[in-house]
Write a structure and sequence with these properties.
The structure is a single chain. Helices cover 36% and strands 13% of the residues. By secondary structure, the chain is an alpha/beta fold. Strands 3-4-5-6-7-8-9-10 form an eight-stranded parallel barrel, surrounded by six helices. It has a two-stranded antiparallel sheet with strand order 1-2.
Length: 337
């Protein structure tokens, strides 16, 4: 039987999520990959236990995580039932719905029917009574935004989730979603966008609202948790020379995250130059990439995946050096631009 470390809260940094009362660990554990039926269950346990022992309280899932879809929630549920139930009140468990999950007209996007049905299924898979955060996983252009947001409001009021969030909404969509949720009395807690040194779309000004996603989050008091902070491995030492045979790309298990075509010679050269800066800072490239995101106070947490406890440790150790000199930031910008 697992017993959590008595020192689990001693070294983790916790940030306030927007203007809410919720604190999130600076690094959260995402289960997009490495928790499906192609992965080792004992390895999953080790990763989750190591995460909690080092102060990671936030475990992020979605209905379609696996593979196959739903498997990550099933595996997390097994580990939760066996080892984590006693710590439920110390955990932030999140899930999402928006992408394809089951056949027919009610198995994806943003209708009230889909969101509520999907969450009910997620709760059963995980064996929990509620999730702490439930997200609209993507904006639905064909469903009125009012319907999607009132569904989130209903979910929170029903007690099936404590907070509502959105993921991958642009600045205009985020502005409208926040206004609707505020009017309903269920503020938007958090936005989960893709964000890394190589993917900076949330910094770009939206033509309609004349603000970036980050600007909107800062003004509205909404937290930000960045996913894909390492650009699916491009911002690690994994691809500095060639595609490793044992990597997900090398094994043909990219699952839509990254392909060989994404690993361009230009990005490999950028990574090599960035790695030189990281080494001077006493960090790995991955650690510097995580620290670079956390330098912005609007970024509450960085969502990392891990294929081993050792890889997770390496990512968490980014917190040992979160400061950048002006010269370092300028040198990084010259490489990226």
């Amino acid at each position: 039987m697992y017993t959590a470390s008595s020192t689990r809260y001693d070294s983790m940094k916790y940030n306030r999520c927007g203007k809410s009362g919720l604190l999130l660990p600076a690094i959260s554990l995402g289960m997009w990959h490495n928790f499906g039926n192609v992965d080792d269950f004992t390895g999953m346990q080790k990763i989750i236990f190591r995460a909690f022992d080092r102060g990671i309280t936030h475990f992020d899932l979605a209905n379609n995580y696996g593979p196959p879809a739903g498997e990550a929630e099933i595996n997390f549920g097994k580990i939760f039932k066996q080892d984590l139930q006693a710590y439920r009140d110390e955990l932030i468990i999140s899930s999402k719905a928006g992408y394809y999950m089951w056949p027919g007209p009610y198995g994806e996007w943003g209708s009230r029917k889909y969101l509520i049905s999907s969450l009910d299924q997620s709760l059963k898979r995980m064996g929990v009574e509620y999730v702490d955060i439930f997200y609209s996983h993507r904006f639905d252009p064909n469903t009125p935004l009012e319907e999607t947001m009132t569904a989130l409001d209903q979910i929170v009021r029903s007690g099936k989730a404590l907070y509502a969030g959105i993921s991958s909404y642009d600045a205009e969509q985020t502005t409208k979603a926040a206004a609707i949720l505020n009017s309903l009395g269920t503020p938007c807690l958090i936005h989960q966008p893709r964000y890394s040194m190589y993917d900076r779309w949330i910094e770009q000004t939206n033509a309609v609202v004349k603000k970036s996603v980050l600007d909107v989050l800062g003004e509205e008091g909404i937290g930000c948790i960045a996913f894909s902070p390492l650009a699916q491995g491009l911002l690690t030492d994994k691809y500095l020379k060639e595609i490793p045979a044992d990597s997900r790309v090398g094994r043909g298990l990219s699952n839509g995250a990254i392909s060989q075509n994404d690993i361009s010679p230009a990005k490999i050269e950028w990574s090599k130059k960035l790695n030189e800066i990281a080494l001077r800072r006493g960090q790995s490239l991955a650690q510097m990439a995580i620290a670079w995101l956390l330098k912005d106070e609007r970024v509450t947490s960085v969502l990392v995946g891990a294929s081993s406890a050792g890889q997770l440790d390496n990512n968490i150790d980014a917190l040992a050096n979160l400061s950048f000199s002006a010269d370092e930031l300028k040198e990084i910008e010259l490489i990226l631009n």
